[in-house]
């Protein structure tokens, strides 16, 4: 979490940094700050609140000139969000400024030692400890700032992406990463440093992504040097041409990124299967799968590890893999998996799912699985992310940047990729009949069109949102493939509207949650006309007879559920296994409208961050 931006060049640094921080606010938004150097001294402005609050404060407190600076938008880990704990932090001399994304785990013993040596601390942060540690090693051994950063980082345990500026070496920024992402934008006579490329995409499409345990010294007029932090060896900078453009990271006329991303789903699902799904020829072509087909086919089981929405996509995949390819699947929260001494066999295939590709728990679970000799396959959205690099092979979801903190298009594109994999394995194993295989391929090709139709439920979803926007609680129920969709629907509602919501398998209701049902309780039931239709109709009757308010997601033309439900949202028909790609759409819209009507910050819900790079 946290976003960092740095600039060194010939432009005014301040507007570049502010605009960049706004783009990175998805990573954290409880406080923000900037340090600028204008050739005379360091100018600091920082505050609790958003980047817009920082702008107001900076306008009053500092002159914003200068063409070098570093900035930060924070998601608090150590120390409450307040002005003092906001970044940048200074060393005691006031010469060294630092912005940091990550956690210094051994900051307490380091702080104790520094205190003994006379250092004092203003904040409760681990970052201020690092600033003083750098100063201490610099002074002790009379080092230049780059070397001092390197020596200090070798004493640090934890995760970091940092940008460091030293007033005594005012023509350079030192940056480094371990476990948190860091990209360097390489322009003509200018450099940018940022947590991702979005802050500099309009200035340059050339980027270097630092690898773990690498540091770079960027300075004007000198070739950039990238080194390994541990052994000081030089690394050849690999400059990538970025694939994203400015339009993709702007709202494009929508009120919120979340809404834009919901509406992008027909296109991005098409992007996800483009070149992979060949329905007419009856083929699925995915290089990452073909190259490792035997590993998948020989696997006694598939383990899926992920967090949050990605974990929900994993649950959908469990149903699909077992049904299509008859391979046993276990789905685990990465955070549990990594700490519970799991049984991992050499022949197991592990699929790690992550939109950001930076989730700390998922990354750690991957490393654990690799240590046990398992083959790890990544399903990521962000190209070049840590998880995409850490896994043995993988498939990108091609959803484009997802900026709204609540995942929407990531979920549907993850399911699309996983369905393609399951179908390819089923074909190779012969576990699906030829006709079923072809039918699924053709149906998958129609999904974007059906998602577009499902988006037409927007007005109905909005009208229902208006009725239930003040509900304190909400239940989501689904069966089979749509049980994970119920979990996802509940997660969407709670994270952006702060209404307490729970997802359950519909039949599980009578084992407890039914006690919650009364005339105040809205119950969202995913009830398309499919295998368990009669069972779900019975569940609806059970709720109805206890006066619960029923909002049902039904197949267009449904009669039975319509008679029982208080409200229905009608969606196009598809096969059972592919239905999550459609049923989830009205649930996203419902949550979105409820959150907007409650005056919540949809794209930046409280306490959350898009990329959870701390455990
Ligand atoms: C929910 C949401 C989170 C993420 C979770 C995993 O809308 O966005 O639950 O799904 O933090 O993130 P990734 O997929 O980036 O690993």
Automatic annotation (TrEMBL):
Where does the protein principally reside?
cytoplasm
Which key words are in the record? Aminotransferase, Cytoplasm, Glutamine amidotransferase, Repeat, Transferase
| EC category name | transferase
The annotated subunit structure for this chain is: Homodimer.
Q: Which SUPFAM superfamilies match?
A: N-terminal nucleophile aminohydrolases (Ntn hydrolases), SIS domain
Which GO biological-process labels does this protein carry? carbohydrate metabolic process; fructose 6-phosphate metabolic process; protein N-linked glycosylation; UDP-N-acetylglucosamine metabolic process
Compartments annotated for it: namely: Cytoplasm
Cite the SIS domain residue spans from the record.
292-431, 464-605
Q: Where is the Glutamine amidotransferase type-2 domain?
A: 2-221
Q: Which HAMAP family does the UniProt entry name for this protein? A: GlmS
Q: GO terms for molecular function, please?
A: carbohydrate derivative binding; glutamine-fructose-6-phosphate transaminase (isomerizing) activity
EC number(s) recorded for this UniProt protein: 2.6.1.16
Active-site positions on this chain: 2 (nucleophile), 610 (for fru-6p isomerization activity)
Q: Which gene encodes it?
A: glmS
Q: What does this protein do?
A: Catalyzes the first step in hexosamine metabolism, converting fructose-6P into glucosamine-6P using glutamine as a nitrogen source.
- Protein source organism: Flavobacterium cyanobacteriorum
Q: An example Gene Ontology cellular component term from the record?
A: cytosol
PROSITE patterns membership: GATASE_TYPE_2, SIS
Name the UniProt record assigns to this protein: Glutamine--fructose-6-phosphate aminotransferase [isomerizing]
For this protein, the record's InterPro entries field holds: GATase_2_dom (IPR017932), GFAT (IPR005855), GFAT_N (IPR047084), GlmS/AgaS_SIS (IPR035466), GlmS/FrlB_SIS (IPR035490), Ntn_hydrolases_N (IPR029055), SIS_dom (IPR001347), SIS_dom_sf (IPR046348)
Q: Which Pfam families match?
A: GATase_6 (PF13522), SIS (PF01380)
């Amino acid at each position: 979490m946290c976003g960092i931006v740095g600039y060194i060049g010939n432009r005014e640094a301040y507007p570049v940094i502010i605009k960049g921080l706004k783009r990175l606010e998805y990573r954290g938004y409880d406080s923000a700050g900037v340090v600028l150097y204008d050739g005379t001294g360091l100018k600091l402005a920082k505050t609790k609140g958003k980047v817009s609050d920082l702008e107001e404060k900076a306008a009053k407190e500092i002159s914003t000139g200068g063409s070098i600076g570093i900035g930060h938008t924070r998601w608090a880990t150590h120390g409450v969000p307040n002005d003092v704990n906001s970044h940048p932090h200074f060393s005691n001399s006031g010469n060294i400024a630092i912005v940091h994304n990550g956690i210094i785990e051994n900051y307490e013993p380091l702080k104790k030692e520094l205190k003994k040596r006379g250092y004092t601390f203003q904040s409760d942060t681990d970052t201020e400890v690092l600033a003083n540690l750098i100063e201490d090693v610099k002074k002790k051994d009379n080092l230049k700032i780059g070397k001092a950063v390197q020596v200090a980082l070798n004493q640090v345990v934890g995760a970091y992406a940092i940008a460091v500026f030293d007033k005594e070496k005012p023509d350079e920024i030192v940056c480094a990463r371990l476990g948190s992402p860091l990209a360097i934008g390489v322009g003509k006579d200018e450099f940018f440093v940022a947590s991702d490329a979005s802050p500099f995409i309009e200035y340059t499409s050339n980027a270097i992504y630092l690898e773990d345990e690498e540091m770079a010294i960027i300075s004007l007029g000198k070739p950039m040097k990238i080194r390994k932090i541990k052994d000081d060896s030089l690394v050849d900078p690999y400059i990538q041409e970025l694939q994203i453009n400015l339009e993709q990271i702007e709202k494009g006329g929508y009120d919120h990124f979340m809404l834009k991303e919901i509406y992008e789903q027909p296109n991005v699902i098409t992007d996800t299967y483009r070149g992979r799904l060949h329905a007419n020829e009856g083929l699925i072509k995915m290089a990452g799968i073909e190259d490792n087909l035997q590993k998948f086919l020989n696997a006694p089981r598939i383990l899926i590890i992920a967090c949050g929405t990605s974990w929900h996509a994993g649950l959908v995949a469990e149903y699909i893999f077992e049904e299509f390819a008859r391979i046993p699947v276990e789905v685990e929260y990465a955070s549990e998996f990594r700490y519970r001494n799991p049984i991992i066999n050499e022949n197991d295939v592990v699929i790690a799912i992550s939109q950001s590709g930076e989730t700390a728990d998922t990354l750690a679970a991957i490393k654990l699985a690799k240590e046990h000799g398992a083959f790890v396959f990544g399903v990521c959205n962000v190209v070049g992310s840590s998880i995409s690099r850490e896994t043995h092979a993988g498939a990108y979801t091609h959803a484009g940047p997802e900026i709204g903190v609540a995942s929407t298009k990531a979920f549907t594109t993850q399911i699309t990729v996983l369905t393609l994999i399951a179908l390819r394995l089923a074909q190779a194993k012969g576990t699906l009949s030829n006709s079923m295989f072809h039918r699924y391929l053709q149906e998958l090709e129609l999904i974007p069109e059906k998602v577009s139709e499902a988006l037409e439920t927007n007005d109905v979803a909005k009208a229902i949102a208006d009725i239930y926007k003040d509900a304190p609680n909400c239940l989501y129920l689904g069966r089979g493939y749509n049980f994970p969709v119920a979990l996802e629907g509940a997660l969407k509602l709670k994270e952006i509207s702060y209404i307490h919501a729970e997802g359950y398998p519909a039949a599980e209701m009578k084992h407890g949650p039914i006690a919650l049902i009364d005339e105040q309780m809205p119950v969202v039931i995913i009830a398309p006309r499919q295998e368990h239709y009669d069972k779900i109709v019975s569940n609806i009757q059970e709720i109805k007879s206890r006066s619960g308010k029923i909002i049902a997601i039904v197949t267009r033309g449904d009669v039975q559920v319509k008679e029982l439900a208080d409200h229905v949202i009608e969606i196009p028909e598809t096969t059972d296994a592919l239905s999550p790609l459609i049923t989830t759409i009205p649930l996203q819209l419902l949550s979105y409208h409820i959150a907007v009507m409650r005056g919540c910050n949809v794209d930046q819900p409280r306490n959350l961050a898009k990329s959870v790079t701390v455990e």
